[in-house]
Structures are given as structure tokens and as C-alpha cells.
Amino acid sequence: xxxxxxxxxxxxxxxxxxxxxxxxxxxxxxxxxxxxxxxxxxxxxxxxxxxxxxxxxxxxxxxxxxxxxxxxxxxxxxxxxxxxxxxxxxxxxxxxxxxxxxxxxxxxxxxxxxxxxxxxxxxxxxxxxxxxxxxxxxxxxxxxxxxxxxxxxxxxxxxxxxxxxxxxxxxxxxxxxxxxxxxxxxxxxxxxxxxxxxxxxxxxxxxxxxxxxxxxxxxxxxxxxxxxxxxxxxxxxxxxxxxxxxxxxxxxxxxxxxxxxxxxxxxxxxxxxxxxxxxxxxxxxxxxxxxxxxxxxxxxxxxxxxxxxxxxxxxxxxxxxxxxxxxxxxxxxxxxxxxxxxxxxxxxxxxxxxxxxxxxxxxxxxxxxxxxxxxxxxxxxxxxxxxxxxxxxxxxxxxxxxxxxxxxxxxxxxxxxxxxxxxxxxx
Length: 427
What we know:
Oligomer: single chain
């Protein structure tokens, strides 16, 4: 089929990365889901479910990448109406909301923040500085801060991820360096204090449990409604055992998942045991989700793990290359924000699986089992591909697709634009 008639338009590298991650997801979820199917006996069900998600996700990507990226403002407005109420509901009711189907508002919040910050950073460019002005910084700070506060009670890692990606977008938009340094210092100090307090609370609770036969009693009733003791336990175990070899630690309920993840990595012996031959999948409850990267290494070895990591890093690099060629600020900020969110989340997940970070609960984008997460990440790819297709590139006479007049609020010049050789692999 000729490129003109193909339904897969836009940047071929982005399409290749998307499909490679989808294929890996189907194979590894099928291989790692024995814990789910142990009693049901339907071993094909997890894989068939994932194939269905891939089909729907691909349809979403195809639909979105055929729509000019300027219409992502409509999506931004819809999310602005829906996401804050969902976040408030999750703040009081828990991180998952049930509407007959489960919704995790924090996944929508990630996309919403990126769309809103890209719009604000492009709209409030300071022409004298060739970067985002004070208004942009103030509005981004308010939006990110409120979002993180609503998320942090039940999901510290997601709140930190949203904060880091927002900070990265402000760096890319060239917000004044002094403001960013002050913000970074304040946030880092607050995180250190919060985690230190959580460790203190965790250790105190553990000591009280040992003194009392009523092990379910919580000394700090207000804090027991948050995940503070969970954060404290994970941080305490991570730092206290950082100088120990994993096999020297006793396996208990608190470290059961990470210990079996380390066993999976060790069982690979560097070369892998081949897909379908994992042993850890029978003992690791989240083998198909939070710790799927450990199963990937166990089955495909170090080379397989490096290949998966390279896919996410290449996504970030490719998005950066496209962003540098965009004439306008909005598509440049939007594609870098979306790619940064995917890549950073992936790196956190992979770091947890091999023991570089404390357990966080972040899924591996497009690979881990999860419906809402998969569809949201597919939407990321749809928008990125739309930008690669429609955004006017330096050195081109017109947009790659049908030229459309851009609104004034996204017409600011791209402050990170760079004229260099670019592989024209778009439609």
C-alpha cells in the first residue's frame, strides 16, 4: 500500500515504537499472567483482553492522528471540566472510582496537566526573553501544585511524576532560571521532610505493633487514612537494605513483591529463559503490572531489557527532534511533555524492578496490564503523531497534512527551534 493511501500517517518512528510496545505487551502479559489464571484455567483470557485493548488503542491513535493537533484544545477543555471533580472524588473515595467500570483519575490528570501547561507556556511567551514569562510560571505553578496535592494522598509517585514532567516542560519553555531553581529547592526540601516524617511514623507504628497484641491498631489515626506509613516502609526498607545483597534479606509480606522481582532478574542469568518459561510469574502477584519489566528481563535477558529501555529513550529523542523542528511553541511543548511523561514513567518502573528505586506502583506504559492507562497512553501517541503530521516544520513550505490557520493563542514562535537535518519520514 502506498504511503498516500496508508491509514498510518505521521512519523514512522513513532508508529514503530507504538507497535513494538504493543507486541511486547501481548507476549509478556500472556506469559506473566499465571497468577491471574491459576484458578480460572483460562490461560488465553489475559492475552485476549490485551489484544482487544491494542485494537481499541490503535483505533484511537488512528483517529486522533488524523485530527489537527490544534483541536487538542477541545480535549483540554473537556478534561478541565471533568478531571478536577474526579480528582476531588478520588481524594475522598480512593484512587479508583467505580462507574460500572473503573477509572483512575490520576491517569487523566497527567494528560490534562500536559495539555494545559503546553497551552499556557505557549500563550504567555515573553518576546524579549524568547521564553515563557512570569504569568506562565505562576499559572503552571498553581495548576501543577493543586493537581499534585489532590493526588499525593493516595499516590505519591504519580504526584512526583506530574511535578517532574511539569518542571521539565518549564525548562524547555525557558522559564526564568532563578524561579526554577528556587522552586526546585522548595519542592525537594518538602519531599525530603515528607518522606523523613513518613519513615518516622512507619517505625513508630511498627514498634507499637510489637508492644501490643492488637496489631491492627493505628497510633496515628489521621495518618492511617493516607499512605504515609506505606511510603515510610518502602523508603526505610530501600535505604536500610541498600548495602545488603538481595538474597541476604528474609522474604516477608512487606518485601514479597520486590524480592521476587529480584529473583526474576537473577533467574535470567543474563541471557534469559525465553518467553513462557518464567518461574517468578507464579509467585509475583504484580508480574503482569508493576513488575512486568522483571519478567521481561527474566525471559529475554539483559539484551531484552536494554531493547525495551531503548524504545522509551528513542521515543523521547524522536519527540525532541520533532519539537526542535516545529515553527510554533505549542506543538513543540506538547509533544515534549507527552514523550517525557511516557519515558520518565517507564524509567521509574524499570528502576523499581531492578532495585534502583523504592517500590512506586507505576505501570510500564503500554506494556503493563491496565485498561485506562493503556487508552490514555494511546491518546498520547495519537496527539504526538498528529503533531508530527500537521505541525509546520522548519524548511517545509506547508504542513505535512492539510494546512490550517493556527489560532493566535498557539502561534508564538518556538523558543527551542533548531534548524538541523531531519529525517523526513512523515506523511
